[in-house]
Amino acid sequence: MLLGIDDTDSPNGMCTTYLGALIARKLRSSGYFVNNMRLVRLNPNVIWKTRGNAGICIETNAPKEYLFSLACEYVDKYAMFDCENTNPGVVVVETKPPADFYQKALREFCTIEEAEERLNEIGALYKGYKNKRGLIGSLAAVSSVLPDKTYECLSYRYFDKCGTPREFEEDGFFECEKATAPNTWDTVDFKLHKVICIPHGKDPVLYGIRGESPEFVREAAGYLKTEEPEFIQVWETNQGTDAHIIHSRELFEGGSFCFEGVVDSAPETQRGGHVSFGVDGVKCFAFEPTKYFRDAVRELVVGDKVIIYGSYQNGVMNVEKFYLAETASVEKRESPKCPVCGGRMTSAGKGKGYKCRDCSARIREVDEVKRNISVGWYEVPPGSRRHLAKPVCRFG
Ligand code: ATP
What we know:
Blueprint: E1 2-6, H1 16-29, E2 34-41, E3 54-60, H2 64-78, E4 89-93, H3 100-107, H4 112-121, E5 125-128, H5 134-142, E6 150-156, H6 170-180, E7 184-185, E8 188-189, E9 194-195, E10 205-211, H7 214-221, E11 231-237, E12 245-247, E13 256-269, E14 275-279, E15 282-286, H8 293-298, E16 305-313, E17 316-326, E18 345-347, E19 354-356, E20 362-363, E21 376-379
Parallel strand pairs: 2-11, 12-13, 15-17
Antiparallel strand pairs: 1-3, 1-4, 2-3, 4-5, 6-10, 6-11, 7-10, 8-9, 13-14, 13-16, 14-15, 16-17, 17-21, 18-19, 19-20
Helix pairs in contact: 1-2, 3-5, 4-5, 6-7
Bound molecules: adenosine-5'-triphosphate.
């Protein structure tokens, strides 16, 4: 049996994974197996999300009707119904529905009607609360297939502590990253000397450690010194896999893409610190919150060959990472002095060296500007990374 839940939280509290973890604990204590706990991130560009657009799926041997009424009971009790944008959905199916709905929810936009139509077709037990939008994420979660997967160890606070400052010692998080990276990632940002994996809101999450296997994330959590958590739950996820990325140049609003191209307009820093540049006619941006990523972007020059990854929103690419495949050569603006007579030389044409104006001596080599960037990957800092974006450490 697969249980899907989505859209139970608000900026004022709760988290759908916490609700799912509570249900899993109840199922286990009632003698049922819980085989798989899955946290699925969906299209990061949907406007209705509270934080990271996540839905959950729990696999269990509990009977269908019981599972459905238990899930509804927990949603009734814990969901943040007061918030206009909280529209929970609960779905129970016996077998995995076709994956196309998940693929669409991950990369495009789905309607509530589409979700209901599919749920009726497959004979699911389901309940959509308020405007029923949560049915989209719940159905996507039970329909998900994860060719690449990662894990997150989520530690949850005691419910009555939610809303108070989280208690933790920073050092343990830095030690954890030193000892377990690159098998874990996004725990801290060394460059900004900042702990990344602790949220700041009123939700019950104390921290989340992301990594390649359940063993790595559990081991990593062992380094941390924090307030006593109520419990921890390791989730299987599609985070850090680039599952949302469409490999195409046919960009559409709200999609996330990867395409190869040549820089055709030089980086410019705009008001607000955003850096813009062009690739094959597509306007690309490294926005201010991407912090030191902008330093790498500023080093690009016209002619560089790049592979761009990012979200297409408001007609521009919001760049999440890029691969610099080939650096263009840039001739120094000032021509060298003539090695024969010491006179001033002039360019003999692009890539053809220099010619002396006085004695006609020639130099064949081009005097190039030393580039401060080399072939390789460049990505946004951990704190600005989208949950689905594959960190460079996972490219091997
Ligand atoms: P929560 O912890 O409650 O899941 P969240 O930040 O993950 O918080 P949601 O509250 O789930 O965000 O809000 C996202 C809403 O958008 C949900 O109702 C979900 O069903 C819906 N949704 C998700 N993906 C899509 C999509 N591709 N098209 C349309 N709606 C979507």
